[in-house]
Write a structure and sequence with these properties.
The protein has 278 residues and is an alpha+beta fold. It has eight helices and 14 strands.
């Protein structure tokens, strides 16, 4: 991460140190936040609509629209009302991957029950190599994290020897996620260029987000993509963004307000995330 060195008045430094001692906020975090606010950037906030716990319970009805999401980020993922496909948000453009393999651009009034976004400003850039499986991809990405207790956004660009992904099929509200994904469409493509993107969520937040890495993929021609199940690549360019601020938008729909969200969704999520053709 780049380092910033500058001179300040002693009175300003004294006030800064006193603030951090009083609030417990790290000096680095305070300075980054103050600069972001002054420059009109919101570079360390993860914005999420609804929770994975609600998704597991089959709450797929509208919480927000695509138009309502646009101000909250230019990079992210999610799904659409009725679990109708996969959302990929890349460079400010929203894409909808459909179960028949198509990619379309959703309208601003398209309904969204769950999404995670940020304004992507990577602090780290590099390469990862010798990706032979999903487990080696996860291991390589884990090596880029500096903490188990922060959120991270990642972007991978380059040539993939193979990518294996799924797209959820539309279902009725109330069908639990692990059952809904029994009918998911699965795709494999070899020798393809594209972008993989997503987030790492700490284990302590597993009732809110997908604990660990959650990745979606989009081909370079923007004609195919979905939720990543596997990948192989010799070398990929990688960018990582550390996120230390979470903004969770709670739906006020009747279904969400009256749902039983006390259960740990981890087991159901793990089942839903697996490939079905094993």
């Amino acid at each position: 991460m780049p380092r910033l060195t500058t001179e300040v008045y002693q009175s300003l430094m004294d006030a800064l140190v006193a603030h951090c001692e009083k609030t417990g906020e790290p000096l680095r975090h305070f300075v980054s936040r103050a600069l972001s606010e002054a420059l009109g950037l919101d570079h360390s906030t993860l914005f999420q609509v609804s929770t994975t716990g609600a998704l597991v319970q089959g709450i797929y009805n509208e919480a927000v629209t695509v138009g309502g999401l646009r101000p909250h980020g230019d990079f992210g993922l999610g799904t659409f009302e009725g679990l109708d496909g996969e959302m990929v948000v890349l460079d400010g453009t929203f894409y909808q991957a459909h179960a028949d393999g198509r990619i379309t651009l959703p309208s601003d009034d398209a309904s969204v029950p769950f999404a995670t976004l940020t304004n992507f400003h990577p602090q780290h850039r590099g390469k990862i190599e010798n990706i032979e499986s999903m487990s080696s991809l996860i291991a390589a990405l884990d090596g880029l994290r500096r903490s188990d207790n922060l959120f991270f956004a990642v972007r991978l660009d380059g040539h993939f020897d193979e990518v294996y992904w799924r797209v959820a099929c539309k279902v009725e509200a109330g069908v639990h996620l692990d059952k809904a994904t029994d009918a998911q469409a699965e795709f494999r493509q070899k020798d393809v260029r594209g972008t993989m993107l997503g987030f790492w969520t700490p284990a302590y937040s597993r009732t809110i987000g997908v604990a660990g890495w959650h990745l979606h993929f989009l081909t370079e021609d923007r004609k195919s993509g979905g939720h990543v199940l596997g990948a192989k690549a010799a070398s990929l360019d990688v960018q990582v963004h550390d996120l230390d601020n979470l903004h969770l938008a709670i739906p006020e729909t009747r279904e969400f307000l009256h749902a039983d969200l006390t259960q740990d969704p981890a087991a159901a999520l793990e089942k839903a995330e697996m490939a079905k053709d094993r």
